[in-house]
Amino acid sequence: MHLAIVGNIGAGKTTLTEKLARHLNFEPQFEAVENNPYLEDFYSDMKRWAFNLQIFFLNSRFRHIVDLQSRGINMIQDRTIYEDAYIFAENLYDMGLMSARDFENYSNIFQSIIHYIKPPDLLIYLRASVPTLVSNIQKRGRDYESAIRLDYLSKLNEKYEKWIGNYSDGKLLVIDKDNLDFANNPEDLGKIIGKIEAEMFGLF
Questions:
Q1: Nearest to 17 by CA among 35, 9, 29
Q2: How confident is the model at residue 136 (pLDDT cuts 50, 70, 90)?
Q3: Architecture of domain 2-201 in this structure
Q4: Where are the domains positioned within the chain?
Q5: Phi, psi at 53, each rounded to 5°
Q6: pLDDT tens by residue, 167-189
Q7: What are the residue numbers of the active site?
Q8: Which residues of 15-48 are buried (b: 16+ CB within 10 A; e: fewer)?
Q9: Between the N and C ends of the chain, which has fewer C-beta atoms within 10 Å?
Q10: Which residues contact 41 (CB under 8 A, 6 or more apart)?
Q11: pTM of the prediction?
Q12: Alpha carbon distance 159, 161 (integer Å)
Protein backbone atom coordinates (compact mmCIF):
# COMPACT_ATOMS: atom_id res chain seq x y z
CA MET A 1 0.00 0.00 0.00
CA HIS A 2 1.39 3.38 -1.04
CA LEU A 3 0.02 6.56 0.54
CA ALA A 4 1.34 9.98 -0.44
CA ILE A 5 0.83 13.36 1.23
CA VAL A 6 1.00 16.45 -0.98
CA GLY A 7 0.67 20.16 -0.30
CA ASN A 8 2.40 23.50 -0.33
CA ILE A 9 5.54 24.44 1.62
CA GLY A 10 4.57 24.52 5.31
CA ALA A 11 1.27 22.66 4.92
CA GLY A 12 2.28 20.01 7.47
CA LYS A 13 3.21 17.09 5.21
CA THR A 14 6.16 15.88 7.28
CA THR A 15 4.25 16.05 10.58
CA LEU A 16 1.30 14.13 9.18
CA THR A 17 3.60 11.59 7.52
CA GLU A 18 5.30 10.89 10.85
CA LYS A 19 2.04 10.52 12.77
CA LEU A 20 0.33 8.34 10.17
CA ALA A 21 3.39 6.12 9.79
CA ARG A 22 3.36 5.42 13.52
CA HIS A 23 -0.39 4.75 13.59
CA LEU A 24 -0.53 2.55 10.49
CA ASN A 25 2.90 0.95 10.99
CA PHE A 26 3.89 2.10 7.50
CA GLU A 27 7.41 3.04 6.48
CA PRO A 28 7.70 6.85 6.24
CA GLN A 29 9.53 8.36 3.28
CA PHE A 30 10.64 11.97 3.61
CA GLU A 31 11.72 14.60 1.13
CA ALA A 32 15.51 14.92 1.16
CA VAL A 33 15.56 18.70 1.61
CA GLU A 34 18.73 18.89 3.65
CA ASN A 35 20.76 17.00 1.03
CA ASN A 36 19.79 19.18 -1.93
CA PRO A 37 22.92 21.17 -2.93
CA TYR A 38 20.87 23.76 -4.86
CA LEU A 39 18.12 24.69 -2.40
CA GLU A 40 19.81 27.53 -0.52
CA ASP A 41 21.20 28.99 -3.77
CA PHE A 42 17.73 28.75 -5.33
CA TYR A 43 16.06 30.82 -2.61
CA SER A 44 18.81 33.45 -3.01
CA ASP A 45 18.63 33.59 -6.84
CA MET A 46 15.65 31.69 -8.23
CA LYS A 47 16.19 32.46 -11.90
CA ARG A 48 19.80 31.29 -11.91
CA TRP A 49 19.19 28.01 -10.08
CA ALA A 50 15.60 27.01 -10.96
CA PHE A 51 16.43 24.42 -13.63
CA ASN A 52 19.27 22.89 -11.60
CA LEU A 53 17.07 22.57 -8.54
CA GLN A 54 14.18 20.94 -10.39
CA ILE A 55 16.38 18.46 -12.24
CA PHE A 56 17.99 17.44 -8.95
CA PHE A 57 14.57 16.92 -7.34
CA LEU A 58 13.24 15.01 -10.35
CA ASN A 59 16.20 12.65 -10.57
CA SER A 60 16.48 11.95 -6.84
CA ARG A 61 12.73 11.44 -6.40
CA PHE A 62 12.48 9.15 -9.44
CA ARG A 63 15.34 6.95 -8.27
CA HIS A 64 13.87 6.85 -4.78
CA ILE A 65 10.33 5.87 -5.79
CA VAL A 66 11.53 3.21 -8.25
CA ASP A 67 13.57 1.63 -5.45
CA LEU A 68 10.67 1.81 -2.99
CA GLN A 69 8.12 0.33 -5.37
CA SER A 70 10.47 -2.53 -6.24
CA ARG A 71 10.59 -3.45 -2.53
CA GLY A 72 6.80 -3.75 -2.26
CA ILE A 73 6.55 -2.16 1.21
CA ASN A 74 3.68 -0.36 2.92
CA MET A 75 4.79 3.25 2.82
CA ILE A 76 3.65 6.80 3.29
CA GLN A 77 5.44 9.41 1.22
CA ASP A 78 6.08 13.08 2.02
CA ARG A 79 5.65 14.83 -1.37
CA THR A 80 5.58 13.17 -4.81
CA ILE A 81 7.33 13.33 -8.15
CA TYR A 82 4.14 14.74 -9.69
CA GLU A 83 4.48 17.94 -7.70
CA ASP A 84 7.92 18.52 -9.15
CA ALA A 85 6.45 18.84 -12.63
CA TYR A 86 2.85 20.03 -12.19
CA ILE A 87 3.50 22.48 -9.35
CA PHE A 88 7.07 23.68 -8.94
CA ALA A 89 8.58 23.52 -12.42
CA GLU A 90 5.42 24.84 -14.09
CA ASN A 91 5.18 27.66 -11.57
CA LEU A 92 8.80 28.67 -12.09
CA TYR A 93 8.15 28.83 -15.82
CA ASP A 94 4.98 30.90 -15.34
CA MET A 95 6.87 33.35 -13.11
CA GLY A 96 9.61 33.79 -15.70
CA LEU A 97 12.14 32.07 -13.45
CA MET A 98 12.68 29.14 -15.84
CA SER A 99 13.17 29.71 -19.56
CA ALA A 100 10.87 28.13 -22.14
CA ARG A 101 13.79 26.03 -23.38
CA ASP A 102 14.60 24.70 -19.91
CA PHE A 103 10.94 24.06 -19.10
CA GLU A 104 10.41 22.11 -22.32
CA ASN A 105 13.54 20.08 -21.65
CA TYR A 106 12.42 19.39 -18.08
CA SER A 107 8.88 18.44 -19.15
CA ASN A 108 10.17 16.02 -21.76
CA ILE A 109 12.38 14.30 -19.19
CA PHE A 110 9.43 14.04 -16.78
CA GLN A 111 7.14 12.51 -19.42
CA SER A 112 9.85 9.99 -20.34
CA ILE A 113 10.30 8.68 -16.80
CA ILE A 114 6.76 8.88 -15.38
CA HIS A 115 5.69 5.67 -17.16
CA TYR A 116 8.13 3.65 -15.05
CA ILE A 117 6.37 4.30 -11.74
CA LYS A 118 2.90 3.60 -10.32
CA PRO A 119 0.77 6.38 -8.81
CA PRO A 120 -0.02 6.12 -5.06
CA ASP A 121 -3.00 4.07 -3.90
CA LEU A 122 -4.25 7.13 -2.00
CA LEU A 123 -3.20 10.76 -2.51
CA ILE A 124 -3.80 12.99 0.53
CA TYR A 125 -3.85 16.72 -0.24
CA LEU A 126 -3.29 19.17 2.62
CA ARG A 127 -5.08 22.35 1.56
CA ALA A 128 -3.80 25.39 3.45
CA SER A 129 -4.15 29.16 3.04
CA VAL A 130 -1.08 31.38 2.75
CA PRO A 131 -1.39 32.68 6.37
CA THR A 132 -1.38 29.10 7.64
CA LEU A 133 1.65 28.27 5.50
CA VAL A 134 3.56 31.35 6.68
CA SER A 135 2.81 30.59 10.32
CA ASN A 136 4.09 27.02 9.97
CA ILE A 137 7.21 28.12 8.05
CA GLN A 138 8.05 30.66 10.75
CA LYS A 139 7.55 28.11 13.53
CA ARG A 140 10.06 25.64 12.07
CA GLY A 141 12.63 28.39 11.45
CA ARG A 142 14.64 27.10 8.50
CA ASP A 143 17.03 29.87 7.45
CA TYR A 144 16.75 29.22 3.73
CA GLU A 145 12.93 29.49 3.89
CA SER A 146 12.96 32.95 5.48
CA ALA A 147 13.17 34.63 2.05
CA ILE A 148 10.18 32.82 0.50
CA ARG A 149 7.82 35.41 -0.97
CA LEU A 150 4.09 35.48 -0.26
CA ASP A 151 3.28 35.69 -3.97
CA TYR A 152 5.37 32.54 -4.52
CA LEU A 153 3.34 30.61 -1.93
CA SER A 154 0.11 31.98 -3.39
CA LYS A 155 1.00 30.90 -6.92
CA LEU A 156 1.95 27.44 -5.67
CA ASN A 157 -1.46 27.16 -4.01
CA GLU A 158 -3.13 27.99 -7.34
CA LYS A 159 -1.09 25.25 -9.03
CA TYR A 160 -2.05 22.72 -6.36
CA GLU A 161 -5.74 23.51 -6.73
CA LYS A 162 -5.52 23.14 -10.51
CA TRP A 163 -3.65 19.82 -10.28
CA ILE A 164 -5.87 18.34 -7.58
CA GLY A 165 -8.99 19.50 -9.41
CA ASN A 166 -7.94 17.42 -12.42
CA TYR A 167 -6.38 14.48 -10.56
CA SER A 168 -7.59 11.12 -11.89
CA ASP A 169 -4.73 8.67 -11.24
CA GLY A 170 -6.26 7.11 -8.13
CA LYS A 171 -8.08 7.75 -4.86
CA LEU A 172 -7.89 11.30 -3.51
CA LEU A 173 -8.58 12.73 -0.04
CA VAL A 174 -8.56 16.50 0.53
CA ILE A 175 -7.90 17.75 4.08
CA ASP A 176 -8.52 21.39 5.06
CA LYS A 177 -5.44 22.23 7.16
CA ASP A 178 -6.74 25.68 8.17
CA ASN A 179 -9.40 24.10 10.37
CA LEU A 180 -7.43 21.14 11.72
CA ASP A 181 -4.46 21.04 14.08
CA PHE A 182 -3.36 17.42 13.81
CA ALA A 183 0.08 18.31 15.17
CA ASN A 184 -1.26 19.25 18.62
CA ASN A 185 -4.88 18.06 18.77
CA PRO A 186 -5.36 14.26 19.03
CA GLU A 187 -9.06 14.62 18.16
CA ASP A 188 -8.24 16.32 14.86
CA LEU A 189 -5.65 13.63 14.09
CA GLY A 190 -8.24 10.97 14.86
CA LYS A 191 -10.69 12.50 12.38
CA ILE A 192 -8.04 12.43 9.64
CA ILE A 193 -7.03 8.85 10.43
CA GLY A 194 -10.68 7.80 10.25
CA LYS A 195 -11.07 9.35 6.79
CA ILE A 196 -7.86 7.78 5.53
CA GLU A 197 -8.74 4.32 6.81
CA ALA A 198 -12.18 4.62 5.20
CA GLU A 199 -10.50 5.30 1.86
CA MET A 200 -7.96 2.52 2.36
CA PHE A 201 -10.26 -0.21 3.60
CA GLY A 202 -13.69 0.87 2.35
CA LEU A 203 -15.01 1.56 5.83
CA PHE A 204 -18.00 3.84 6.46
A1: 29
A2: confident
A3: 3-Layer(aba) Sandwich (3.40)
A4: 2-201
A5: -60, -50
A6: 999 999 999 999 888 888 889 99
A7: 78
A8: bbbebbbeebebebbebeeeebebbeebbeebee
A9: C
A10: 48, 49, 53
A11: 0.88
A12: 5
